[in-house]
TrEMBL record:
Protein name in UniProt: NAD-dependent epimerase/dehydratase family protein
Cofactor or coenzyme needed: NAD(+)
Biological source species: Cognatilysobacter lacus
A single GO BP: D-xylose metabolic process
Gene3D superfamilies per the UniProt record, alphabetical: NAD(P)-binding Rossmann-like Domain, UDP-galactose 4-epimerase, domain 1
All residue ranges annotated as the NAD-dependent epimerase/dehydratase domain in the record: 4-247
Amino acid sequence: MKRALVLGGGGFIGSHLVKRLKGEGFWVRAADLKKPRYAETAADDFHVADLRDYGSVERVFEGGFDEVYQLAADMGGAGFVFTGENDADIMHNSAQINLNVLEVSRRIPVGRIFYSSSACMYPEYNQLDPDNPNCTEGSAYPAAPDSEYGWEKLFSERLYFAYARNHGLTVRVARYHNIFGPEGSWDDGREKAPAALSRKIAMAPEGGEIEMWGDGRQTRSFLFVDECIEGTLRLMRSDFAGPVNIGSDEMVSINQFADMIMQIAGRTLTVRHIDGPTGVRGRNSDNALILERLGWAPSRPLAEGLAVTYRWIESQVKLGCSDSAPDA
Ligand code: NAD
Ligand code: GDD
C-alpha cells in the first residue's frame, strides 16, 4: 500500500487532501499542531506535533513515504498576514518548519515532496492595476512581495529547489491563489475574504449592512478547494517540478464578489467600505503554464464553489447561534 504524509493535515487544505488520498487507497499519516476543527480526520495515523521541533519532524517521517505534502504554515487571510503584527511569527515559524522538513527528508527516504507556496510571493509592482495584474510564473523577479509572508514563501520555494539540486530530492512546488471551501477558517481572525464576507452576509440583520475593507475595487480570483487538490495531485505525479500557479483565472472585484454571495444568500444588504488591510490592488492566476505542462487547469465556475461554501458557513453561523442561545 502506498504511504502519504500530509504536514498541516489538521488545517483546511490538508484535511481535504487527507480525505482525497484515503479515497485513492493510500495509507495516510497527518501531522499538525491540532486535529481538524470541523470533522474527524480521515488519516490512519494523526500526530499532534510541533514541526518547528526537529525531533518531532523526525518522528513524523518514521517509516518513509512515497508522497509527502508540506502544507504546514503560520498563515491566514489579509487580516492576519497584511497587518504587520504577525510578521516575525510568520517568518520564523514557517521557515523553521521548512528547514526541518527538508533536512529530515534527505535523511529518511521519501519519494516526492510537494511544497505549497503562495501567489503572495509575486512582486507588488505587477499587481498595482486591479484590471491587469501580472502573475505569470516568470514574473517573480526582481522580487518584491508586499508581505513578509510572501518573502518567506519565496525563500522556502528556493530552499526546496536547492535541496533538489544538492541532495537529490524530488520536489514539486505550487503557488496557490486564494483557496476557499467548507471547513476553512471563518471566524478566528485568519479567515480570507470568501469566508469573512459569507459570515458577514449570513449574520447581518435583514436590510442591514456589512463592512468591507477597502473600496472593493481591488481584484482577486478564488479557487475551490477540490480543484486545488486536483491540481496538487496532478503536479505531484507529473514530471514537472514547478513552480506553477494553482488558481482560478476568473478574476472579480471584491464588490462583485460580495454581490455574488448576496445573490446566493438571497439577501440585499448595504456595503460599508472601511479602512483595513487590503494587500495588493489586483491579483489573478495566470494559467498558461499549468495548461501547457499538465494539460489541465481549473475550470469550475466561481459561483458553484461559492454556493457550497456559503451554505456551509451559514450552517456554522446557525450552529454558533444555537450554541450560544441561553437555556430556555
Ligand atoms: P491552514 O492554516 O488551515 O493550515 C495550515 C496548518 O498548519 C494549520 O492547521 C496549522 O495548525 C498548521 N501548523 C502551523 N504551524 C505548525 C507547526 N509549528 N507544527 C505543525 N503544524 C503547524 O491553511 P491552509 O489554507 O490549509 O493552507 C495550507 C498551505 O497552503 C499553507 O502553507 C499556506 O500558506 C498555503 N497557501 C494557502 C492559500 C489559501 O488560500 N488557503 C493560499 C496560498 C498558499
Ligand atoms: N479577509 C477579509 N475579510 N478580506 C476582506 C474583507 C474582510 O472582511 N473585506 C474586504 N476584504 C478584502 C481584503 O482587504 C483583500 O483586499 C481581499 O478582500 C482579499 O482578502 P483575503 O482573501 O483575506 O486575502 P488575499 O487574497 O489578499 O491574500 C490571501 O491569498 C493569498 C494567496 O492568493 C491570503 O490568505 C494569503 O495568505 C494567501 O497566500
